[in-house]
Structures are given as C-alpha cells and as structure tokens.
Amino acid sequence: MRKKPEGCAGCPLERTGRGFVRPVKEDKKYMLLVQGEAPGSEEIAEGRPFVGQAGKTLRLLVLPFAGVTADQVFFDNTLRCLPPSNAMGEAYPTGESRKRAEQHCRQYDVWDEFPKDVPLLCVGRKAQEMWFPGKNISDIHGHIEIRDGRAIGCTFHPSFVNRTNLNVLPLVIAEVRNLLEAAKRPELLRRPDVVKGYIPYSHGSPCAFDLEWNEVGTVTVVGVAYDASTGFSTFDVQDGLDIIRQHMEEGTQVVGHNIIDADLKKMDAKPKSWRPEHVFDTKIAAHLVHAHLASMGLLNLGSLVRFYFPTSDWKQDKSDVLVYNAYDVAYTFKLFQALCDDLRMTGQWHLMEKQQTLAQMAALMHKQGVRVDAARVTEYVTKRREQLAELVKDLPINPNSPKQIVEWARDLGISLPDATFETLEKYQGVNPAFDKLIAYRAEAKSIKTWFPYEEDKNGNLVWVSEQVFPHFNVTGTDVARFSCSEPNFQNLPKPLRRMIIAPSGFELAAFDAEQIENRCVAWLARDEQMLADFASGLDVHRLVASRIFGKRYEEVTDTERFEGKRTVHASNYGETKFNLANRLFGNRKKESVAAADRLQQAYFAAYPRVRAWQMEVSQQLDRGDVRLRNPFGRLRFVYAHSSHERMKRGCHFLGCSTAADIVNGKAIAVWQELGLLPMLIVHDELVYVVPEGDMDTLKKIVEILESPVAEMGGFRIPWKCSVGRNYGPADDSNPDGLRVVRPK
User: Fold this and answer.
1) Residue of 365, 222, 202, 207 whose CA lies nearest to 280
2) For the CA atoms of 288, 291, 296, 299, what is the dihedral angle to 10 degrees?
3) How far apart are the first and last CA of the chain?
4) Which of 356, 475, 556, 622 fits as disulfide partner to 287, beta carbons 3.0 to 4.6 Å?
5) Is-contact 141 303, C-beta < 8 A?
6) Contact at 8 Å (CB) between 450 and 467?
7) Is the dihedral of CA 305, 309, 314, 316 positive or negative?
8) Tens digit of pLDDT for each residue in 425-459?
9) CB atoms within 10 A of CB 483
C-alpha cells in the first residue's frame, strides 16, 4: 500500500483514503489522455490507474475500436486514492469533503505537460463535472469542446457499461473516436449557420423541420433546413407551418426527429404516405439501426448526433430559442443523411414504412383515448381502503418495507432479487402467507396511477375526466413491441381491467395471439414435433407436459401442466435451471434446482431442435458476428459479457421480435382494410371497440389476423376472440366482462 505524499496533508481523505496512485509520464508519444474518477483496489495494489475491470473494458473493448491502443494513452484519475464508501455505496466523497478532496488532487494534474493536439477524455460523471460543472453525464455524453487549444470530451464510465448495459459499448466507442477526430480536425466542430426570422421555400428538396412548443402545447417557433449547413428559424409560426404543409402536399420528403409522435400530431397534418420518400422520422430510423440503445433512452437527437459526428453539444443552451431551433433542424438533416446510409447498409429500408405507419397508428390511439367506468372506480377505491386495513392486520411485517419483505420471504424459503410488485407477483401461489402480501401490494398500487381522479378534503373522489389517454410508443423497446406510458396500460393490474369500458352501444373485442412466441420459437428452430403439437388443436401446455413427464395426455395433472408451461417459457430463451427453480418453487434449494434441471432436460429431449437452435445462435454470436436478423428483416446487434447471456439475449430477440412483427403487421392490416384502430395493444393482444353484437366485424378481424404470414412462408397464428362491455374477465362478480366467442 503506497503512502500519500506530503501534499495530501489537510485533505479529507488523508487518513481515510487508501493508497495513492499517481501515474508517471513516460517519454513517448501519447494519442489520448483519459481522466477517470478514483482508483479501485486493484489500481491501489498495482499503483497504476485503470487496471481493474473498468480499465480492462476501456483498454480491450473501447480504445482499439476507437483507433488507439492502450500504450498510446495516459491514464489518470480525478482523485488519487481510494475513498471509503459514502451513504449511497459509492467509493467517492460527497458535499464539502468532495470539493476539498478534488481541489487537493489538482496539484498532481499533469495535463498541461502534454502537447495541445492530444485530446482529453473524461470518463464518468465525477471526471466530467470537473470540466463541465453543472451538467449531467446522461445529457452531455459525447460533447466535445476546444479549451485553450485542446479537444476535451466526455463519455460514460466503463464501469457503467459493465454494470448497467453492455449495449452502451458502441456509443462509448463512437464518442471516443469522435474526440480523436476532433483533435485532428477541429473544424469538424463548427456549428451550422443560422438564419433567424426567415424560412425560404425550396422546391423538391428534402425538408427537415422542427417545432418548439410552450408549456401549454402551443407552437412558438418553426425551424426548417434543406441541408446540414444552414438552419432557418422563425417566430412567424403560421408562415413556417404553411411552408411545411406545402412540402407535404407537393409530396416532398419531410424529415424530423420524433415528428410522427409529436410535430405532425400537433400540426394535425398528414403527408402523402408513410413511405420514407414522403416522411422520414429520424427517431424511428435510429430505432431500426440502434435498437440496442432504446431501453437506455439514448435515441434522442442530441445522443444520436453525438454518436455519428464530432459535436459541440447545443442542447444545453436555450437562451436564444431561434438559434437553438435552427441547430436542431440542421443537425436533424445531417443525422437523416447518416441514417439513410445505415438503413441501406443494414438492409432495413423496407421496414421504415411499416414502423412509421405504426407510429401514426399510435398517435391516433392516444388521441381517441380509453373510456373509464368512474362509478366502478369510486366503489373500488372505497372498498380498497377497507381491504388494505384488514390485510395489514394479517401480515407479520411492514408490507411497505422492501428490507422486511426480502427477509420474511427468505424465512419462507423464497429468494427475492428485489421487492417490486412485478417480482412478488411471480411467486403467486407458492405460499399462502406470502399470497396475502402480494394481495396487499396489488391493492396498494395507487389507483391514481391509472385513472384521472382527485380527492376533496373529505376523501371523496372528484373526476377530472372519464377518459384516459395512454401514450403508445413504437421506439420504446428493443424487440419491436409497443411500449405504453402515462399510464402504462400494458401493466394494468388485473382487478382494474374491468374499469375500462366501451361506449354506449358498443363492446370491447380482445384478440389474443395464442402462444405466439412459443410458436415462433418452434418455427425459428424448425422443430417439426413442436409445430405438430401446436397444430394438433389440443391444450398445448398439457401436451408438452405429457412429453416432459412421459405420461398420457389425459393423465397429466394441473400441477404438471403448470410446471410444463413454466418450463417452456423459461427454457426457450435459455434461462438456467436455477432461475427455473425460482419460477417453479420460489427458491434455489438443491432439491428444487435438481427438479428444475430434470424438467429442462426432459423438455429438450422432447424438442431437440429448440436446443440445437439455441446453440446455433450462441455459436454465431461467440464467433463475433453479433448481428441477428428476424424473418421480417429486422436487425439487432447483441452485446453481452458471457456466451450464455449473449445466447439468451439473441434468442429472446428472435422469438419476441418475430412475434411483435406479426402482431404489428396484423394491426396495420385491420386498420387499412377495416378502418379500425386498436383501443389498446397489450403485448400480443389487440383490443378494439366494435358495435355491440356485430359478429360480421369480428369475423372479418379474425380472417385478417389468421391469414398467412407471407414473410414466414404462410405460417399461421390462431387468435382467441373475447367480447364484453368491459376489459376484465367475465365471472360472477363481473358478468359484463370478456367472454370467449367464436365468430361465424
């Protein structure tokens, strides 16, 4: 353990910080300077920065692909010793101690000793804040500035890539590469020219546009660009909107970032078609090319521009809204050109029309909204208050304490990774006492999360509206499924589904694609036995269980059917026997894992092609070919640390995205052929509002849904149709709920 030098006297970390790491500047040519946050245990032991896991990621997975080798890089940190963990578990001081410690360490900085043409890269939030104070790394990553002749940039810390999501790796590589390019050619950072107060009309040229809105949703500024060099921006909103509409009427290609979900919806405008030659939404294009970034929220305009180009970020300064808006449209045009090349290179240009049509469908679904039974919600809230009070009496713990929940579950033999309701719900039926906790947590989820009511001073419900307008998004997941927010009706608790109702004279019709993901896996794996089992018309879960347990179909018990069903869902995408044991038995005890292993082995023995398919996917990814394409031509880049994790992510993408593409394509077909928009899209279920008793419409919908999937050689999926006045399942307490019907 290395002692601190005399200069550390008086530093808050003088006695509490472990070791001291100060790198030595060697007599060689450096290409890049890297400033991190603080050394770790391995760095302290070796006396060198960036030799731990984060350093290996940077040295082996980032720098070589950005165009520089580790021996050409000078590594250092913002702090030179390893601080003790703070209250948040980070090995870094906070508050005044942080300021003083960082200030003390500045005496050891050697950045000024390097030539100005060597750029400085800040990795992680702490290092970034030294150079760009008041900014957040999630907003400013990829930003580059020239300071006193030196290019300085920032990106995510490699430990963030390791711990959080390896999908961020390509973004980090691109941002390091851009910094190196900017150091060689600072002119690349030159921002576009801005023309304020005037928008010309350019006949036949692609037109990138962007709107700025105020807090009440009124358009205040319109910007247009016809190339990447100049942005035009004006406060004359009407004139600007007229020019954009004129382009659409003429059939000119209009371009924008998230324009279908935002700008075009606000304008109430519609281009000649949703083909990319008429409208090009750069966010949708980016989702096709970079789906791996979707779950990280990195498909915004700033992140994407900084991915593709060396850029001095303009998103942080909105002091002059015309300048800000002009930059937006000019950079959008530049991004548009890059994405066109990438769509062609990845062979996904043909998917743009489909995705943009889905985005327009989502915008219209938001506009039409969902009707709520206010009287039933009011009644439910009243009963809920009484039920919660009773449930709490029966629980031996505080049901709102995650720590107590996890500890109590452990005493019951249940291993919980966390105490979220979504996790607890997976263990329904494992233990009667634990079921009471699940019931409490289900009831405790705020009804206000889902329905728009307020309460007066006496606790009575006051309704703002008896309609809800959920927001559906086609770029929110990495597997082509719709996401939903404000509220997320895809995760609406089952007891609340009956609160969603049809208007007077109409009913809800829910169409569920039966076992679509498992059928898609069978098709992808070319497993003839599984395909035949699905085609048999029998209860497929009972049939699969009969093969797993080696029993006659009629002899399979309900428990065996349940275990077989869970085994299929877990095994198709490569879950381990340990996770399956948790799913089935709520623990990872030796006997539970052994039982889960037997079930998995029996499943793969019955359907060997599924396992062979998984191995084929795994071997491709292990060879370094991380590109997977589903039957519709959708491409995904798969990144993971281990071979098993790559296989899981790869198989999940192929099965899930194939199912999503089928469902999405069928939704478009129903809309285009019958003029019907879904009220809800909940995973593999499409919910429509149809005239009450209109069996003819139901029959037409089923015919469209069950028609052959051309991209899969005529593959067909059966759909179950349920009809009711509300969205809850029909039972004695809910006679108007959904009941299965067979349209004739």
Assistant:
1) 207
2) -20
3) 81
4) 475
5) yes
6) no
7) positive
8) 888 888 888 888 888 777 656 787 888 888 887 77
9) 17
